[in-house]
Design brief:
The complex is a heterodimer of chains A (362) and B (306). Chain A is of the alpha/beta class and 362 residues long. Chain A folds into two domains: 8-144 and 269-319, D-Maltodextrin-Binding Protein, domain 2 (3-Layer(aba) Sandwich), CATH 3.40.190; 146-267 and 330-360, Periplasmic binding protein-like II (D-Maltodextrin-Binding Protein, domain 2). Chain A contains twelve helices and ten strands. In chain A, strands 1, 2, 3, 4, 5, 6, 7, 8, 9 and 10 form a ten-stranded mixed beta sheet that branches. In chain A, strand 1 (38-42), helix 2 and strand 2 form a beta-alpha-beta unit. In chain A, helix 4 packs across helix 12 (342-360) and helix 6 runs parallel beside helix 12. The N and C termini of chain A lie far apart (60 Å). Chain B has 306 residues and is mainly alpha-helical. Chain B has two domains: 1-51, no CATH class; 70-299, Orthogonal Bundle (MetI-like fold), CATH 1.10.3720. Chain B is built from 14 helices and two strands. Chain B has a two-stranded antiparallel sheet with strand order 1-2. In chain B, a hairpin with a 4-residue loop joins strand 1 (56-57) and strand 2 (62-63). The two termini of chain B are 43 Å apart. Classes of the chains: A alpha/beta (362), B mainly alpha (306). Chain A binds chain B through residues 74, 76-77, 79-80, 106, 109-110, 174, 180-181, 218-222, 233-235, 346-350, 353-354, 357-358, 360-362, and chain B through 56, 58-62, 78-80, 83-84, 142, 146-149, 164, 167, 249-251, 253, 258, 261, 263-269.
Chain lengths: 362, 306
């Protein structure tokens, strides 16, 4: 028996059409399911939380009266909790999970997420929004991001470094940083090491050799907040990091800039998905939240905060990112960037992680 | 009068809940919390033991139904795990030794001092770190020892440095010593308290130099406290996660970091469980060695309870 007063698909479609005429009006339907007091959304902290809060959550809360509460549990740590909750048919700890597409893909492979195919705002999004290798939308990609080569401008008075090989310069020994799982760096290392992108994942010797040479440079290995912190504290001169972190440091007054070296840089996506097991009314409003996050208005605010190109083609880049190669919007922008399908990343993550660790911990 | 009425009432309640006929089970009842705790731990270990025998399929991200030792083979075949394990054991041994060397005089002075103020200051200094979490303390060291930290600023005034004092193995060990020192002092202090001061005075009155008294009287009599402290410090250091992460700069992992990575970074609960089981076995084995070689009294493995 369907306890919902109206068919969900019909409702969402109607809401989408209404949204085209009024920014928040889509939520003002008489027949809508009971509103939960709040929705819990998993987010990353710092600039990341500020961006989704200012761009999406505050407007959503204002329009619906539903409070947005954040869970800042690290995405990797929340994942097993979500999986366990869904498997045990318990209520999941969050209603909406803001996740890396790689992690979201793992959850989709385990059929942990609700299908989002009926969200009206999916129409007209860039192709990158759609997850590859799945029927429907067990997740939706929400923006792209580039792993840039960030550098302290004081250390490069002649201008931006041209190649990833600058990381091997002895004068930067102990003053370079990578992600502690090597994420974002493999494709760049493959090309900088003399290999080909097409050889990923079958032959990555060039990448491992290059990373092996980097070990002698005593890199610092960390996570998103570490990069901003290390630039601020003067611990590093160079880092392979998501542009948002470099931009965050720059906004905080640190003399940092970034570049896409001649070998190219990895481009990836983050996603939103809704775990199974939510009460029907909460699922409905969680979908509304995701749907709103894909709207032009929300994407503009959210992606402005992050300095990243959204999946909605109607948004404009923030002033400081106009013309920046780390803000790809057109097909020719993507030609300089390296994209590794998420399915390949997921299937090889364990092996790549093991190899990276064996080099760096050896 | 009122107190005796209350006592009688309490005795009545006790007699109702726990009649005299049950008296012979009282000892067993007192053991119940410990048994419950052990059962929870054993159940968790059993789950992990089972999980460690199933292999992850990276195409579906589900673990297979078949039992296999592949996770253990994978762990055994990767040099990284042995390097990290060796680093953890060596680090725990160094931290234990340094901590005990620093903790003993601290505990001794704290117990023996005739000055109430000195004792209070030492006690406050001992307990203060407990109010500050391990992570906060580690970040404190980043502020003090960082490239633009307090110490390097002072060196800068003298025209020296900056020196790299964090994000290396010694800084991890340094952080662990600072973190574990209060635990060691707390465990050694009761043992020193239990040594009658007159025994030390007797030794010295018989002509023994203070160093000889320390070696032949104080140290042997404080052995139970030292063994307990060594055991606690060693196991806590061996299984520590936060200090290598915060002060190690990502290239000085301990084995607990490898467990975390397997569970949370690559979502392989089978491999993570295998590494965790090996860690538990090694920690248990080393603890047993410490107790067998050095343990006495309650902390000894011999049947005799001295």
């Amino acid at each position: 028996m369907n306890r919902n007063p109206i068919d969900r698909r019909t409702f969402l479609q109607g809401a989408g059409a209404f949204a085209a005429t009024l920014p928040f009006g889509r939520f003002a339907f008489a027949a809508e399911p009971a509103k939960p007091k709040e929705l819990i959304v998993r987010v990353w902290g710092g600039e990341w939380k500020d961006a989704i809060d200012g761009g999406v959550s505050q407007s959503f809360a204002k329009a619906t009266g539903i409070g947005i509460k954040y869970d800042e549990t690290e995405d990797n740590e929340l994942q097993p909790k979500l999986w366990a909750a869904v498997k045990q048919k318990r209520r999941p700890p969050v209603a909406v999970n803001w996740d890396t597409t790689t992690n979201a893909t793992k959850s989709a492979l385990k059929k942990m997420g609700e299908d989002l195919s009926d969200l009206p705002n999916l129409k007209g999004l860039l192709p990158v929004a759609q997850p590859l290798g799945f029927e429907g939308y067990p997740l939706v990609n929400v923006y792209s991001y580039v792993y840039v080569l960030a550098y302290r401008t004081d250390a490069f008075p002649q201008g931006a470094p041209k190649s990833w090989k600058v990381l091997l310069d002895p004068k930067f020994k102990g003053r370079i940083a990578l992600y502690n799982d090597g994420i974002g760096f493999h494709p760049a290392a493959q090309v900088a090491g003399g290999g080909k992108v097409e050889d990923i994942p079958k032959n990555m010797k060039a990448a491992w050799d290059f990373i092996g040479k980097l070990k002698a440079q005593k890199p610092l290995l960390g996570e998103d907040p570490d990069f901003t912190n290390w630039f601020q504290k003067g611990e590093i001169d160079l880092a392979c990091t998501i542009v948002t972190n470099a931009r965050g440091a720059k906004k905080n007054g640190v003399k940092v800039a970034w570049t896409i070296p001649e070998e190219g840089a990895k481009v990836d996506t983050d996603a939103l998905w809704i775990p199974k097991g939510l009460p029907a009314n909460e699922l409905y409003w969680a979908k509304q939240y995701v749907n709103y996050a894909l709207s032009t208005e929300a994407q503009q605010g959210w992606c402005d905060g992050l300095g990243l190109p959204g999946v909605n083609p109607n948004i404009n880049p923030p002033a400081d990112m106009v013309g920046d190669p780390a803000y790809p919007t057109k097909p020719e922008d993507f030609k300089k960037l390296i994209r590794v399908p998420n399915r390949i990343q997921v299937e090889n993550e364990k092996e790549w992680f093991g190899k990276f660790k064996s080099i760096m911990q050896g | 009068m009122g107190a005796s009425v209350m006592l009688e009432a309490l005795e009545g309640i006790r007699a109702t809940l726990w009649p005299r006929a049950f008296k012979r089970f009282t000892g067993a009842m007192l053991l119940l919390p410990a048994v419950a705790l052990v059962l929870v731990l054993v159940a968790g270990l059993a789950w992990m033991g089972d999980a460690s025998l199933h292999l992850l399929d990276t195409e579906t991200f589900e673990t297979g139904a078949d039992y296999t030792a592949a996770n253990y083979r994978q762990m055994g075949g990767q040099a990284t795990y042995w390097i990290v394990l060796g680093r953890s054991i060596l680090g725990a041994a160094i931290v234990t030794l340094v901590t005990l060397v620093l903790a003993f005089p601290y505990a001794y002075v704290m117990v023996r001092t005739g000055s109430a103020w000195t004792r209070k200051i030492l006690l406050v200094s001992l307990f203060l770190p407990f109010f500050i979490g391990q992570v906060v303390r580690a970040y404190g060291w980043l502020i003090i020892l960082g490239k633009e930290g307090l110490l390097n600023s002072l060196f800068g005034i003298l025209g020296l440095g900056p020196f790299k004092m964090i994000y290396n193995y010694p800084s991890v060990l340094f952080g662990l010593v600072q973190y574990l020192l209060p635990f060691a002092v707390l465990l050694i202090a009761p043992a020193v308290t239990a040594i009658d001061e007159e025994i030390e005075l007797a030794s010295e009155s018989l002509g023994a130099h203070w160093l000889r008294t320390f070696r032949h009287v104080t140290l042997p009599m404080a052995k139970p406290g030292l063994v307990a402290a060594a055991l606690v410090v060693f196991t806590l250091a061996l299984t520590d996660y936060a200090m290598p992460v915060i002060l190690g700069g990502g290239t000085n992992d301990f084995i607990a970091n490898a467990v975390y990575d397997a569970f949370f970074r690559i979502s392989d609960s089978g491999l993570g469980s295998a590494v965790a089981i090996v860690l538990v076995l090694i920690a248990t084995l080393l603890a047993a060695v410490i107790l067998t070689v050095l343990g006495s009294g309650t902390l000894g493995f011999s049947a005799e309870r001295r």
